[in-house]
Amino acid sequence: MPGHKSPTRLRKQLITLIIAAVGVVLFWLADMPLPFLLGPLFACLAAAMVGATLADSGQVGVMMRTVLGVAVGSSITPDLLTRLPGMAYSVALVPLFVLIIGLIGYPFFRRVCGFDGPTSYYAAMPGGFQDMVIFGQEAGADIRALSLIHATRVLLIVTLVPFLMTSIYGQPLTNAPGAALADIPARELLLMMVAALVGWKGGERIGLFGASIIGPLVVAAIFSLLGLIEHRPPALAILAAQFFIGAAIGAKYTGVSWRELRVDVLAGAAFCVLLGIVATIFAEAVALAGFAPAVEALLSFAPGGQAEMAMLTIIAGADLAFVVTHHIARIVVVIAGAPIVAHFLKWKDCE
Predict the structure, then answer these.
(1) In the chain, which ranges are E strands?
(2) Crossing angle (nearest 10°) for helices 320-344 and 58-74
(3) What are 140-151's pLDDT values in tens digits?
(4) Whole-angstrom Cα distance, residue 62 to residue 244?
(5) By CB neighbour count within 10 A (0-12 exposed, 13-18 middle, 19+ buried), where does 136 fall?
(6) What is the pLDDT of residues 41-87, one digit of tens each?
(7) How far apart are the C-alpha atoms of 143 and 46, rounded to whole Å?
(8) Which of 98, 207, 232, 330 meets the CB 3.0–4.6 Å disulfide criterion with 178?
(9) What is the rounded CA–CA span in Å between residue 43 and residue 99?
(10) 69: left (phi over 0), alpha (psi -120 to 50) or beta
(11) Mean pLDDT, rounded, of the chain
């Protein structure tokens, strides 16, 4: 029937969730960090690499991202507004950060890796995964290569940033993701659900980028500033969001061939090294200038996805509003600027 998922897709989704759950258990038993995020991620990645046919959770997975939007929005308080001028100095560095990445990334993918112009350009842009794939498709890029490169960027950043926080910055990742469900007033829980649904669907209706996160963020921020919400979503909801996000990252490698591993994934991994160097330089500059503590600076300039970086910030107990402000600024700069610059590039001249 129209609008209904096929049994085949449902079966793939069920298999994916089972594999993800096994990953949680294994990471938990091995006392590994972030079992609800990295467990599903690596379990699904390993399964995809050996030929398992996986699938993301569709609208359920997207709905889980709204939890993070509400979590960020609820951290935007009147007290935060008084701190915004202090954030301006580091946020002002974001356009320069994006420009340098583009100037390094485009020649890397075009000349070193041998991709065509549109693929090289949108592979180098540190924007939202879906937005860059859509822009690339419109420009004639290799969508499969573009998807794998950006998936590799997110995968490596989500994996390496926790290691850097614990081993170099000494930041424990044991912060409770949220309060217990029973400790949050029913009225606030209801308002959180309203913020998630209205923000998500309302954002989609007006074409808002990252609607599943930004929409709920805006609505929840309004509720928080009005004093109607004083808590983040419950810990159980945030753990569920970790689970679905981790599984979705790993599932993106379904069907990957050895050639794609050798060319696309390796190119994405090599680019991540360059990204890491640039991000570290900017993070250190922000920290040394006294604009932010080292951990917040690292999380603010690590070019992962909005959802993933928000999740890591919550778990690290870092300043969520500060970090997400920088990531929103990065996404805005890329989404607004990338198509404009692409319009003036002559792909044929690069052939």
Answers:
(1) none
(2) 120
(3) 889 899 999 999
(4) 9
(5) buried
(6) 999 999 999 989 999 888 898 899 899 889 888 988 887 778 778 88
(7) 23
(8) 232
(9) 35
(10) alpha
(11) 88
